[in-house]
Structure formats: C-alpha cells, structure tokens
Protein 1
Amino acid sequence: MHKLKLFTVFYKSTLTLSVLFSITIAVIGGGLGFITVFGIAFMTGGWVLSLYYKEVTHKNEYVYYQNMGIAKSTLVISCILVNIIIGAICIIYDHA
Amino acid sequence: MTMPDILEVDSVTKRYSERIILSDIYLKCTTGDIVGLFGRNGTGKSTLLKIIFGIEEADNKFVKINGQKLSSQSRGFREISYLSQDTFLPNNITVLEVIKLTLNQKNVDSFSSDAILKPFLSNKINSLSGGELRYLEIKLLLSLPSKFVLLDEPFNGISPLLIESVIGLIKSSSKSKGIIITDHDYHSVLNVMNRSYLLYDGSLKEINSREDLVNWGYLNAYT
C-alpha cells in the first residue's frame, strides 16, 4: 500500500506532460477520432516525452524512491504499463 | 548488549576510460561509527558512495552487511540510505506530504514538530531555500529504518546554525546507525566523525589528525 502511494506521487509528476502531449496530438491529428488518437498518443509518445523530461530536468528524484526501496527500473516500467493500459482503455471505449 | 551491524565494502575498482578512479578500495563501517571521507574534487568520493548505494556500476565490488553480500539492489536500498549532492525530494508536493509519504504514521507528529521545519510544513518542496531543503532531506534519511547512511556533502550550502543542527542529528542518529560522510567542510566533518580516510590517487589513506590531511596535500599547512 505504501509503495502504491509512492508510485502514485511519481506517476502524477509525469502525468501533466503526458496528458498535454496526447491532447495536442489528438487535436492536430484527430482523423481516427479524438479519444482514439489521444489513447494512441498516451500509450506511445506520452510516456516517452514525460520520462525523457524527468530524466533531463528531475533525474535526481529517482534517488528519493531508491531510498524508499523502489528501483528506477520499477518506476519506469510501471509508468509505461499504466500509460499503455489507460491508452488501451481509451481506444476500446471509443470503438465500443 | 546487541552486536553492531557491519557494512563492508571490499575490492571496489572503478575506471573511466583508462583513468583508474578507485583502486581496490576497502572500507568498513559499523553502527555507531561516523566515518569521514575526504578527498579533492574528482577523486571519486561521490562515485564510491553511489557504488556502495548501488546506483553506479563498478568494475568490481563486494558490498556486504554482516558478512552477507548484498544480492539485490532493492535489499541495498532497504539497508542503506543515500544523500546525493543534488536535491532529490519530489518537488510537486508539500513538506508535510513528503514527511507522511516517507515515515510511519507514528513518527510523523514528532518529526513535524521540529522547530526548523514547522513554519514550512504546508509549503511546496520547491519553495524551500537550499539550506531548509538540505536539513529536511538529512533529517528524513536519518529517520528511515536503514542501518547505514551515506551523506554526500551534507553541509553544502547551509548556514552555520543549521550546520550545528545537522551535526546534532548525525551524532544522535549514530547511536543506531553507521554513517559515512564526505564534505569539503572539513571542520564540520572533523567535529562529527570518529574515524576518517582520505581518498588519494584511487586509494584510501587512514587519517588520524589534521596534520595527516596536510601531509597528504589535502589541506594547506596554514589553513
């Protein structure tokens, strides 16, 4: 439960950029439908951009989570998985 | 009386390209120890701490706690805490939130009643001054259940009064923890440590007095 709280704080710190990127892509290239394009962008470029931004500007924050017993690889993989799941839900919802 | 826990770092070798930074380093720290680690810029002090913590690869290393090799990174994270040179707390939450996120509920109230931190509890981490943030980071790390703490430049950028408070925190925590400190503020390190080494030319030299630091060329004789 405690590790879930830690992951939530980490994930929230990546979310703004992911969402902004995905909305922008959905607005620009929404031919497949806004929600579908949002979902595709969120599960691909969204996490790439937000994790890259974290790496460039706040790389040292990983030390906090390491001190709390969570490896950087665990945070990164979890973040990617959550984005893929949310993106997939968007796509499925849009085609349901 | 309980036996002290022992952190042993053995055979640490690290090279960048052809330059050997660390050469067959051996370092031992037991709970109750405060070990000072001196060295000029670029001699590998921070690299050594990162290797011990497990976030920097070494060409060769053995890190053992109570004779058992740390088999996984996550076990190392549980047993050892690490203060990096640069600030590391998530800056999108408040001081109180980070305290609650880091500590057990039963420790939150006593931690939050700290006179230095109390005025800032509702402030976001990114609004703290460098000194306040450093104090918070050090106090949080020393409050974790880990047996060993590696402090990389804990006195950097903090005022003399806060340095006194940090020294007090380190001394009181050393009753139950082993602490390794590296900092260029050698006065403060000498004030707090009970053993010290100088990292010189890739090797650790035992330091027994200020004169040893002068003899190894770390301090000027008239400093």
Protein 2
Amino acid sequence: MTESTPAISIDRLTKRYGQTLAVAGLSLAIPQGSIFGLLGTNGAGKTTTFKCMLGLARPTSGSTSFEGSPLTPPLFERLSYVPEKCALYEWMTGAQLLEMQRRSFRRYDEKRANDLMDLFALDRKKKLGKYSKGQQTAMALVLAFSIHPEILVLDEPAAGLDPVHQRHVLDLMIGESAGGATVVFSSHQIGQVERAAERVAIMHRGTLRLAGEVEQLKSDLKVVEATFDDEAPSLNGLSTEPSVGQIQRAGRLVRIYVKGNGDEIARKIGDMRPRSVRILDQNLEDIFLTTVGSPSPAAVSER
Amino acid sequence: MRYTQTLRILNGLKWFSVVAVAFYAVVVGIAALTGFFGHVQHITDKNFNIPLPALFALASLVTCFFVTRFGRTLALENDEHLPLVWTRPSSRSRTALTVLGVDALGILAAFAIWMVLAFALVATFRVSQYVIVPGDAFVQLLRYLALPFAFYAVLMALTASVEGGGAMCGWAWVGAIFLTVLAASPFIPNPWHAVFNFIDFINPLAYGSFHSQTGSDTINVIGGPTPTYVAGLTPAMDVVGLTILFAIGLAAGLIQWRRLEA
C-alpha cells in the first residue's frame, strides 16, 4: 500500500433489489485521511452503498477495496460503522454494551469511551431501550469512536441529535481525520457536510452525479443572479449555453447556475437591462440542489 | 457475541430457575395441603417404580421449552442487529459458532437444573428407594441430552433467515406435535400413513418418547408408546438420529446465516 492508495475504492458498484436499481455503476476513490461526504435525496442509494461497501449486502456487480485489499473480518478491528438505524440491544445497559465492545475489539480505549459517554451525557446504568432515539445514536457513536478507528463509515451520524451534540459529532470527525483516520459520512444536513467534508459526492437515483473537492466545486460553479423591474424575461436563449446548468425564475428574480466564472452569462443578462446583476459563489446546498435538479418551490425551472 | 449471548443465556437460566423453584413449591404445597405426602410414604403397589430415564425425558422436554427461546438467536440478530454483529472482527461462521457454544452450555445447564429439581422432589417425597437405574441408563442420558440439541438445531435452521423468528418457533411446536399425531394415527390410510412416518424422522420430538410399564404401573413421557417408525428405534439409534438432525439443522442454519443481507 502506498500513500496514494485510496483508503476506500468503489469500482462500478451496482446493486439491484428485484426490479429496483438501488445503485448503478458507482465508482469512487476516497483518499486516506480525508473527510468524505456522501449526499443524496432519500432513496439515492447512500445507505445501500455503505452496506455493499461493508459486506452487509451483496453487490449485484462491482467491488470495494480498502487500502487496496478486499474487505475481510479482521479489517473491522480498525473500521467503525454507525448505521442509519442504530438497532442496539435494548435489553442491555450502556455499561454492558461498552463491555461487549471491550471484549470485541483489541483497540478499545476505555478512557476514550468514558469520556465520550460523559460528552453525550449518557447514563451507563440505564437500559438502552430507555434511551431516546438521539441517545441511542450517541451510544452508537461512542462505540464507533471508542476503538480509535482508522476508517469511519457514518450513515446519518447526527440524525436525532440536538444541535450541541451535532457539533460534537462534527468535532469528533474532524479530530479523527486530523489523527489520520478516513471518515465517510452521509447527511441530509448540508451545512454540516460543508463544514466538515473536504470532498463530496452527490448521488441521485442510484447514480453518481457529481464528485470532487468542496472548495474546487464551489469555485468552479457560480450563480448569476439578476433582478428586473418587472416580470423577469424568458431566458430560453441562454439555456443552450454549454456553461449553463439550470435557470430559475421567480417573479422579478432570475438565478442562473453556471460552470466557470459566469462573466459571459452576466454580460448577456446585462444586455436585457436588469435592475441589478451579480455573480455569487455557489454554496454546497446550491450545488446539491442544482445537481439533483430540485429548484426552490417558488421558482420555475427553465432547464 | 460470546458476551452478549452469555448475558442472554444467564438471564434465561435465571427465569428458568425461578420457574423450577416455583414448580417445586407448588407441587410440595399441593402435596402438603392434600395429605399426599402420607400417601406417598405408604406405597403398597409393589410395581411402583421411577425409572431414571423417565426423569431424563422430563428434563429433556422442559429443556426443549427453554431452547425455544434460544434456538432463534440468529433470527433475533437478524431483527435489525446485523450491522452491529457483522461489523466485529470475526467471521459470520465464527460468530454463529460462538453463539452455539454458549447456547450448548445453557442447554446443559437447563437440563441439569431440571434434574436437580427432579431429585429434590424425589428426596422431598422420600421415594428414592423406588428410583431404578436400568442397564441402558447412560445411553438414555445421551438420548435425552441429544434431544434438546437437535430441537435447537432444527429451530435454528427454520429461523436463521427470518426476522425475530418467534412465530416460527411456536409453529415448530405445533408442527412437531401434529406430525407425531399424524404418524401415530391408526385412522390415516396408507400411503399417507407411511409418508407421515417418514417425515416424522425429521421431527426431533419423535425421538424422545418414553414408555415404561411394570404390572399396572405405566409411565409415558413425550408421547409414550406411539406406534410410529421412529418410536421403534432403539435408544442408541435415537442418539444417532438426533445427532444427524443436529448436524443437518446446524449446517442449514449456518448456510442461511452466511448468505443473509442486512
């Protein structure tokens, strides 16, 4: 294994459930030590991708390798997974679950686990069935982080957590990555992904729509926003421009999502005598929404 | 998984022991209230005896009840716990075999608890002189130890690929009893009678029937003298049959478990 060997390589992964194509030919390379965000709408295939990666579901075709090697049980000594549904043993207490973890993993760090229990304010003596949904998620995170994993796969890790604990999760992920761990996570909270992830991939209906470094994507993609005195004119002429991704009209406002710096499009809009034209950076939410083709409810999409 | 399953088994044994003690208290209480103690201490029937294998058979049957809870462990894990179980540094087969190892100790412990209860009742009623140890007692012990293991493995095979498996275990009891009735019934014409008798070979409970008759004194456990093909086997052949069922059930359970998807 060399430093350039990706921590996780997914090669043309396809998963079908009967007639439903959950993941279609997904290929990704996740660099070592990076924080990688997987974004997608519900049913995009994120959870199925994680399950196939970790051998919890059999891919219809394609493969996944970890540091260049296929997944084997010993790898789980240094890989942690927090599933979307944290089905812990509800009849166990928090202390018993930690004991289970201690007996399963040589890397288990008791002090770390205790610190995390305190961080998330979890009661060791309480049965897990009495924990709230957020506390169960937190307990799963305690298990995951207690072994100092080298690879972390987190499926909606902050779901059900309050904002304070959501911040803790982000800090933990960033901390582990700073220590050399590779973190792959999915989240519907794009702000969190933008805050933590260095790279993202956007999936839609089982396919990969966009992947790259967050800063690079943001610098490559702009929004040209124009306001007109009256109803915004039709911009059909612009829709054939190769750099234009999506055009949204909402009353007097027009937003045009473009690849590149947007100067050319701004100039053409300027010829239509708007009240104002400005070129804005796209944030990750803009990039996500344009990639999956979902305009804001008030807007009319022309492309 | 060893720790998790040990906790499950210990909790199960705790309740099993509570039931055993409660059973003892109820039996002794009823005997004390009805004057049955005096009757037992003045047995006049010279044919009266308590064959040790009958106590084995009873303990084995009760252990099968205990096994109903634990024969579906793989199905319990399949009830949304697989992401937790399968992301441990251990193969699926090893995980399942670890569970089996713990369960095996639990089965032996349950059998032992019920034998202790049986001996406690014998001592309490002061009838130890009537307990007889036949020449094949050791083979019978093996037979009645093998029965809950075979039942466990068949339940594992039936439930390994379902979620929870509780209903399946309940139906397994209904199926086992119904099959024995069909195989033994003189009212079923051939070829169906023969068909049900052959199917009965995969029914673990069919291997456990015990019958003893001394004069007018009759003891039947788990079906007694049912006229089925399986009932005609010798105790040693029963041990072989139960061992084969155990091996096949276990293999079928493991194969399903390895092929599951979370």
